[in-house]
Structures are given as C-alpha cells and as structure tokens.
Specification:
The chain is of the alpha/beta class. The protein is built from 13 helices and eight strands. A six-stranded mixed beta sheet has the order 3-8-7-4-6-5, with helices on both faces. Strands 1-2 form a two-stranded antiparallel ribbon. The chain is globular, with a radius of gyration of 19 Å. The protein starts with a helix and ends with a strand.
Length: 339
Amino acid sequence: LGLEEGFLSELTELHVPMEVTRSVSAALLTACHAISSGVYSTVLVGGIEKMTDRWDKIRDDLMLLEDPWSYYAGGTPEVNHELMLRAYAKKYGIKGEDLSKLNLALAEVAVKNHAHALKNEYAQFQRRITVEHVLSARAQSQKPLGLYDFAPISDGASAVIITNETTAKKLTSKPVYVLGCASATDFLNFPGRADLTHFLATRIAIANALKMAGIDLWDIQVAELYDQSTVMEMVTMEDLGFCEEGTAWQCIRGKCESYEGFYEVNGKRLLVNTNGGLKADGNPLGATGGAQVFEVFRQLRDEAGERQVKTAREAPKYGCTQEFEGFGTKGYVTILGRD
C-alpha cells in the first residue's frame, strides 16, 4: 500500500524512491548495491522502533509466525536461546565443572557489555552489573539463563548515509568504506533446522562479505555482534570464525574473568560490542543495525571517546557488524574499513 513510504514523503517533503525493509542492515545492503551499480550516488538508510508500549503483542506475533507449535504450548522468544544452549552443551560434551565455567563465561559477557555501556552516552543501561547479579537473576525460560542474559525491550532510531567514494572524499578527509556486505537466510522454524548449535546464515554471510572485502578475518579488530542473549554472542564468535566450534566460552572465560574488556583469539585482541551491545546499548530490533554501524564507524575514525579501541597506538583499520532478523533466520554481515 505504500503507507510508510507515503508518510515519509510527507515528513521529508521528498519524492525520491523509498522502500520499506525490516532492518537497517537489510536497507544498508540494498543501498550499497544501488550505489555500487551507479544507480544512485547517495542513499539515506534509517530505522525506528517503538516497542515498550506493545511488547506483549510483538512477542505473540513473532512466536506465532516463527513457531506456532511452540507458541500454543506456551513458548516465548527466550525459549530458543535456552534450547540452543542445551544443544550446544550436549554436542560438545560440556558438563560438570566445565558446564559451570560455561555459565560463568556467559555471565561475564553480560558484565563486559554493561561495562562498555558505561562509556556510551547513548546506551539504554549505563550501570555496572556483576557476575553475581547475572547468576542470581530470575529465569526467563528455565535456568541457567536469566534476566541479565537477555537484551532489553527498547525504543530507538538510527540513520546512516551511504555515498560513493568520490562524494565521500569531498565531504571528509577520513572516510569509512563499506568493503563488504552480505546476507543469507535460514529456515524460519528454529527447532526444525539441522543444527541447533549454530547460525548457518551468519556463516554464509561472513564468508561472502570477506570475499567481497578482500581481507582476512584476522584483519578485523573490532566487531559489533547481535547479542540478543549472551548465548548469541558466544555462538556468533564461532560462526564468524573467530573461535573453533565448542570453544568460544573458553575464549570468553580466559579474558573476561578479570574483565580485560577483550577476547584473545588467534593470538590477537578482538574488541566485541564496545558500545554495550544489544544487552546494554539497547535492542530496538530494526534500528539496531544502524547503531552497530555507527559504533564501528566511530571506532575506525578514532572518535569513540573513552571506549576508543587502540591497536599499535592508532584506531582500528577494519571492523565488522553482524545482525539477525528473527532467531537467526536472516543473517547480515557488513565489513567496514578506512585508509
């Protein structure tokens, strides 16, 4: 019907082509294709969500569409995260003392992201939490995952302007380039997928984005991951290729135990969710991808203030974002770089 596009045209008094997508990451991918093809020189990408006053309806609609059988049995969006964690522990034989360490590692993911958010003026939650807070929080489906393992309900908006290289260099002396962007799609129904321990869409998207960018995975120094839960951040570390399967919790445990603020992978430091991630910066669904791009953009331009990442005394050269639509149904990866 063009309702959203018509409203936006009235609001901006513009009559340029406008399209509605489900997330900033999806719109960004479309914008990059349009610019690289030469159809357009500059594209505005934006997203907005107002969720706090209708979250129950959003939850019901999402669950009914994704998995009606689970919905009618009383399932909630949090259940899939619990199912993934249990499948992960079973597949990799994690039990006993190691299972306790895994649970501690997940708690430390939440602690890390809240600590990063303390330095982010736009974060929804600017307060420190402890491992004890996470472990003692009330369950959201069934233990061990509790309230602090999940991202909040959020209202928010984001916008990104994409232009061609010629225009960018006229506007700034330190442009940030979209070197690679890709997406992939998995089955809608999570319990019906062949592998419940990983996100296939992310694996396909990162491979294609790296190929487009022409860089190695280990060139990436900062990453914004879609941490709708602490389990998602852990699993995504493996799906992107930063950790071997079944080992990401050990990378987390190794550095976050004393809170050093980074993961050490392949002998290098990787800073993840320096803005606080969805966990603390906020989770306004479709607008989230723009916040991720904004954070990596600021890091590459050495404009992230107190949370600025430094490698060899300079800002990172490459960073990436990873986002989902649904529970891993659509996966997006965007790789950014600077001169």
